[in-house]
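anyone seen this seq b4? input:
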Amino acid sequence: MKERIAAILPAAGKSLPRRYKLWSHVLAWALLALLLTFLEMRANGFSFWFSFTNTLVSIAIYVVVVYFNVYYLIPHYLKEKKFFTYLGLLVLAVVTVTPLKTIVLYFKWAHLPQLQAELLRDMNLYFVPTFLIAVTSTFISIVSDWAGHLRREHELQTKTMQTELNFLKSQINPHFLFNTLNNLYALTLKKDPRAPEIIIKLSEMMRYMLYECNEKRVPLQKEVHYIRNYLDLERLRQGSGGTIRFEVKGELKDQQIAPLMFIPFLENAFKHGLNNQLATGFVHAELRIDGHHITFFIENSKADALPGPTLKRSGGIGLANVRRRLELLYPGKYKLDIADRPNTWAVTLELDLD
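predicted toks r here
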């Protein structure tokens, strides 16, 4: 709700350059003067110039009261929660300044005795619009300060969130890179003919991580391609030591997703599955797509003597980071279930990508 209000009123509390702020005030008073001029012309049938000069007298009084209120009374009394003192001083300012308007108009209308008589008869009514203008300036000032507070709070939350997300992604990328380079090093020592293929796939993955994962969202198609490359590398490394399967069900269109959201699940699956020399081990993953709602399921075998993956690994890299990213990027739009069974470990992640 706060973010929505801050988005609707982004400039209300914003500190504008002084010249723009000055011109915005001048424009506001000019528009008010024109409005009051036309209202007086319509009500009394006066000429434009006569009505306009009358309005300028009123505007001068309003300017004095408004800026005295905004720059002195509100900061020193209203914001200090001295409500009764503030209200008393505001009324006193209106009562003190408004008679000046009556005096100026009385001399201005010296050649119009009928208007002078009406002015003296109705002079008490002139306090009302002055007071209403003063109260309006108070309301605008309160709304402006409130919107500015929301804007600053929203900016702080956004900066904090972005800093945290960048930190979480920086933990994911090097971790995967180190694992892959170790695998590549082992194959080159053996002069394995699969090493060039690994280098090509690793190049594609590094390009994706370095240039495209800096965006808040990436196409789901590219994320799927990244997963396929990752699994291809694992197949080359694992050889015939287990079963690796990944299926995509549904139609890949224009869906967007936060980058590298599934990789920690895959890393855990291999760490606690095939990497433990399980001859009949497996990693089965499936991505089901229903419009902008997706479900990612992954299940892996594990040895009886090994515990399932923990939610926090050394260095803080792992599923704990995924939970935190989900809370930041998809609040209220995800469901994460983890099933730790005697021989298998399964994760189901549902995401609403809208």
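Residues 186 and 288 are 35 Å apart (CA to CA). DSSP finds ten helices and seven strands in the chain. kinda curious what u guys think
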